Amino acid sequence: MRPAATASALRSLRTAGRMSFRLACRWQVEPSRRVLGSSIRGYANASGPPVGTQVVKLTAESYPQIQRDSRFAALTDQDVAFFRSILSSGAVLTAQDEDLAGYNVDAMRKYRGQARLVLKPRTTEEVSAILRHCNDRKLAVVPQGGNTGLVGGSVPVFDEIVVSLANLNKIRSFDEVSGILVADAGCILEATDQFLAERGYIFPLDLGAKGSCHIGGNVATNAGGLRLLRYGSLHGTVLGLEAVLADGTVVNGLGKLRKDNTGYDLKQLFIGSEGTLGIVTAVSILCPPRSKVVNVAFFGLDSYEKVQKAFVKAKGELSEILSAFEFMDRQSQNQVAKFSELRRPLDNEHNFYVLVETSGSNRGHDEEKLQQYLEDLIENDVIEDGVLAQDETQLKNLWTWREGITESLAKSGGVYKYDVSIPLSELYQLVEDARTELQDKGFKIGTEDAQIVNVVGYGHLGDGNLHLNVAVKTYDKAIEKVLEPWVYEWIEKRHGSISAEHGLGFAKKPYLKYSKDEGVIRLMKEVKKSYDPNGILNPYKYI
Amino acid sequence: MRPAATASALRSLRTAGRMSFRLACRWQVEPSRRVLGSSIRGYANASGPPVGTQVVKLTAESYPQIQRDSRFAALTDQDVAFFRSILSSGAVLTAQDEDLAGYNVDAMRKYRGQARLVLKPRTTEEVSAILRHCNDRKLAVVPQGGNTGLVGGSVPVFDEIVVSLANLNKIRSFDEVSGILVADAGCILEATDQFLAERGYIFPLDLGAKGSCHIGGNVATNAGGLRLLRYGSLHGTVLGLEAVLADGTVVNGLGKLRKDNTGYDLKQLFIGSEGTLGIVTAVSILCPPRSKVVNVAFFGLDSYEKVQKAFVKAKGELSEILSAFEFMDRQSQNQVAKFSELRRPLDNEHNFYVLVETSGSNRGHDEEKLQQYLEDLIENDVIEDGVLAQDETQLKNLWTWREGITESLAKSGGVYKYDVSIPLSELYQLVEDARTELQDKGFKIGTEDAQIVNVVGYGHLGDGNLHLNVAVKTYDKAIEKVLEPWVYEWIEKRHGSISAEHGLGFAKKPYLKYSKDEGVIRLMKEVKKSYDPNGILNPYKYI
Question: Are B277 and A269 inside 8 Å of each other by CB?
Fold first, then answer.
């Protein structure tokens, strides 16, 4: 459909009393919003790697320069016996349990640890007893939530004991007037949001892995995701935390108050500390009322400049109802199309695509604002074509074209993932420069014989957050060497962040200096030393 | 006007195409929004206490149990000469300067310190050089912003040197696409907001003292104020800080990125640390687009239960455009009326009053939502009477009835101020119980011969934040003894906070244990010790 035609269609539809940017998307199947994302769940807590896929190389073999820290003790039968004595049956997995393998491999199947023990405590007191013993014995520990992280932070590097929070999964309280939720760390994000939905509220965070990830892990990694544009960061919405320190001390900071200026806000250090300062066991969080009306539009544009124009207009015209502004490049959408059974939302290909979501309280008002916005984009030649979801199914299907990118890329083999913050004007330049850099160094992209399957860019434009993904047939040190530290140097020059929302984990630890200056890194090391003097919490990572 | 009459007026006005909850407020004068608040400015940076008011008693005399810490050195002529050598002329005030006195007295005129030196650095480097010298010499320091705090945190207790940030007051940068502002700590809130207004943005914080307070002070004290309901806490909106540590180290954490997950979020410790960990010299903050349309309604209700009903309905019906929900009791409004030249907005007195503000992007939509909300309140007998501002002047005047409470109380003599968070259902009970407690202990309230002029309650209902104010002719230890720790024990029983937004400062330090448990207080002390081993920063306060 040409812009002119769309504009005239708009006019005629408006006389019929209801705007339709395009009458409907012609969906062939009716999958759920997470039709592509759902199978990601398998990796984490299931029994080992999926059948039919290659065994993941041990991290210790992939990175021979990293050595096991000799300060840590080796696990003994006495240790295992002790843990069995304090935990309920089924909460202690050893090499005899075939489930163990799944806890050693990360969601990207890039890292594999050698833990011989997984502990699944059911209470904060059990977490405390575990850490007290580990600290006394100098046994290293990896806290693990839903194991959906993308930087290798939630799996062991060597023989660290995995402490899974999966069994600490109860809602503790919810106040239906204030919207304040207190819940165990192991509650699954999607289930928690469903609990809130039934009460007219929403969890102030949403991300592709919601079916598996834990809210404790979300907080420990300061997850960003799809609703940050609207509801802000977890540093603002988390009101309190309960955490267990390395020596077993339980810090009870589960305040249920929106405002409390009585002392240093210590909980903030745990938000984004990736399990290196303590284990988050419960969260108190302010949940906003769930919007009664959600609309989604999806459109194609021919340049990144026009994507930026559409964003500035969205801030001005959609304003308080704007809840997501996601952009995807042509390559990322072609990748999703390759593995999806869904028919593409737009007839023709475009260089860029944008998904705009609005969330508000009045259907008529929201649709009028969105209509005005889209008309404005068409009249000003900002977009080439677009569709507007007409019902919940279409809305979910449109989201699939954004949320399904991660999994469609993973089907290639491996993915080098860069999750970066860059000033908006230069955001997409990184993707183009990366393609050039790889080709200049002799790598083909996307051809039959190429090792590199695709180089794509997409992300949360509203937050200045780009995901640069390089999909490869198999992980290859030669490709990694072209990309790193090249990508990080590119970002450092623009004062960006080498990790916008994925965190540092194992993957980004060596590159911290590209985002933080020496003085700040020194202060961070002091904090780590003070909270975890023996360094038992998530070693070899973060800092 | 009776509810029924208002409803019929509504109906007739609606046919005229534009809703008017009440045709207009009949204003007699046209003062600015801060007509009452503006004279507060005088106290802080002007030349000493206002003429004609009593000299404020020295803090050291009011609280003889607090002793000067003998670890601190006494100021020498050599110290003064050193500061003169590194700072520009006019930046060093000594006992010879008559301006000095103003820096020793707090905004409530309750505390008076004995500083003989005030330093007004113009750059971060100067702040660094000052602290390095003070730390080496063990000279105690009070960082001071606009000196508008309400807990005696910004003035010396004994002879601490005042470091005023007033001359560090430049906007460093502003990005008109992302809305990210970087500015010096000493920028005045109102001037900063005006700068942003000219560019279509808003500072995500607003409070009565905006004409004097500094944005650095706002961040250092984690100010809450009037827009928290809409834009969230500073922990979410502040993106980065520049701060100088006690030993003069400059921590450059002025990130301009909405998302950055590369390490511990150390800046968070400074937000709300009240100058005890370092001096904030610059702030990077995310500013939202300024709403095109702002509406204010003001109504009277007969019970606190109905105030809560009106709030729950506001969350549901005004939803994304709700930007303030303030409540005031009858006593607070009578107090404002006593000192205001404004005619009262409503004809009759009511037990409670609510000010609702909406901020949105579409006049028609916003007015329709507000109309629907107010009709609903009238039809369900929630409110007794109300007015809707018809223009900017009326809007500002309505706000005066909320923002003018503080100053109208101060005219009595002194005010015991309690700023607390309590679960919503019990919020106002504290005010009623406080009146009973004072009367039971033999104090009269509000009569000609009474020492207590008024006991009022008002605050940010949307945040669960009550201001209980006890206005007295003069500060009186006997009254203080009835109120403290009685108020704090009352709050502790309900797991509230003894300081929702005002902070700890000098006034609340002894009562921290009512809001924080021992383990948390121990961790806080470790943080203080680690950042400021000599304890020179804002001693005798906070922790």
Answer: no
Return the pLDDT at B37: 28
Question: Exposure pattern of B70-97 as b/e (b: 16+ CB <10 Å)?
Answer: eebeebeeebbeebeebbeeebbbeeee
Test A222 with B368 for CB contact under 8 angstroms: no
**What pLDDT does B137 receive?**
98
Q: Under 8 Å CB-to-CB from A86, ≥6 apart: which residues?
A: A126, A129, A130
Q: How do residues A136-157 score in pLDDT, each as one tens digit? A: 999 999 999 999 999 999 999 9
A304-317 and A363-379 helices, crossing angle to 10°: 150
Length of chain B: 543
Count CB atoms within 10 A of the CB of residue B157.
25
ipTM: 0.89
Q: How far apart are CA B141 and CA B162, in angstroms?
A: 6
Measure CB to CB from residue A268 to each of B200, B250, B265 and give the nearest one: B265
Q: Which residue has the tokens 């609207």?
A: A230
Look up tokens 């330093």; give the residue: B119
For A183, list phi and psi in degrees, rounded to 5.
-145, 155
Tokens coding B243 = 């701060």
| Angle at B443 (CA atoms; ends B441, B449), nearest 5 degrees | 160
Taking only the tens place, the pLDDT of each residue in A184-229 is 999 999 999 999 999 999 999 999 899 999 999 999 999 998 889 9
Across the interface, of A308, A530, A543, the residue whose CB is closest to B263 is A543
Burial of A302 (0-12, 13-18, 19+ CB in 10 A): middle
Please state the pTM of the whole predicted model.
Answer: 0.90
On the question of pLDDT at B113 being above 60, the answer is yes
Burial class (CB in 10 A: 0-12, 13-18, 19+), A267: buried
Q: Would you report the helix, strand and coil content of chain B in percent, each value rounded to 5?
A: 35, 20, 45
CA B506 to CA B541: how far, in whole Å?
A: 5
Report, as an integer, the average pLDDT of A498-502: 95
Token digits for A255?
């305040």
- pLDDT interval class at B53 (50, 70, 90): low
Three-state secondary-structure class, residue A118: strand
Q: Check A265 against B260: CB less than 8 A apart.
A: no
Chain B residues close to A269, C-beta within 8 Å: 264-266, 268-269
Task: Report CA A223 to chain centroid distance, whole Å.
Answer: 6
Handedness of CA B488, B494, B495, B501 (dihedral sign): negative
Positive or negative, the Cα torsion across B438, B442, B447, B452?
negative
Residues linked to residue A359 through DSSP beta bridges, in sequence order: A294
Instruction: Give the span between the Cα atoms of B275 and B271, in whole angstroms.
Output: 9
